[in-house]
Amino acid sequence: MKVFVTGGTGFVGGEILRQLGAAGHEVRCLVRPGSEKKLATREGIETRPGDAADPATLAGALEGCDAVIHLVGIIREFPGRGITFEKLHAEATRNVVAAAQSQGVRRYLQMSANGSREGAATGYHRTKWLAEKAVRASSLDWTIFRPSLVFGAGGEFVNTLAELVRRLPVVPVFGDGRYRMAPVAVEDVARSFALALDKPETIGQTYLCCGPQDYSYDEVLDAIGAAVGKSRVCKVHQPLLLMKPLVALLEGVPRFPITSDQLTMLLEGNVCDPGPWAETFGLSPVSFAEGVKEILAG
Questions:
Q1: Contact yes or no for 71/8 (Cβ under 8 A)
Q2: Beta-carbon neighbour count of residue 282 at 10 Å?
Q3: CA distances from 157 to 139, 183, 186, 257, 296 (A)
Q4: pTM for this one?
Q5: Which residue in 201, 224, 273, 285 has a CA-CA distance of 20 to 30 Å to 208?
Q6: What is the DSSP string of 213-245?
Q7: For the residues 117-141, what does the mean pLDDT come to?
Q8: What is the pLDDT of residue 41?
Q9: What domains, with CATH codes, occur in the chain?
Q10: Rg (CA), the chain
């Protein structure tokens, strides 16, 4: 099968490209000019210059392909540079859906996010939901995946927290640290995308993708501490009454590590029932605690 992929230069995209290649699929990857070196693998990958947010660059780009995997997404907006959730989630998805329909590609896989819903508290989740609506309203044979927080080797989440745990005598935590998450391994997410291409029973379905066990944020830090050889991770819990205004004040600074939207999503938690997804794709999802041991070994 020949698969058109957007967002292939990202963390999840790199693993999906690897697994598509291993499964024998041909891949054509939409890449913004100058970003070719960001591809995790280029072996057997045909690149097409373009931008999912610019419909003109999609003209003819999907011709000859059998399926589309749309992965483009951001976790933080920079409106001054034209980088917004509306543009990169909702508009880009509408563009790719329209291109698929006009160029005769019926099979379509969409990367969404756990927590996407109408009326969500954050722009991230609201625009992910708008993207889903565009997919569902299309004539395509679609499948939607909603992963929880994705972790893996080279992923920002594990590397950032591991650096804090290694270097700081006390790790700061927003609030009480009890909000829960069920991180999911990037290999498991990528495998389900690759397998879905040949599973017609997944057409018209939405899958929640989470790890097999959920953890409080404090427990996530403890799991990372154990993986790097720390018997105990000392934490200082920062009062939300003080931290929320501080984040709102500083989130416009590019290097400030968190935005108000991200803090809201963190406190909401990020868990789901992975059973239907795992059963459909024959997966035995890797737990976060086991996964980080392998990632951070040595």
A1: yes
A2: 9
A3: 36, 10, 12, 12, 12
A4: 0.96
A5: 224
A6: S-EEHHHHHHHHHHHTT-S---EEEEPHHHHHH
A7: 97
A8: 74
A9: 2-151+185-210+271-285 (3.40.50.720)
A10: 19
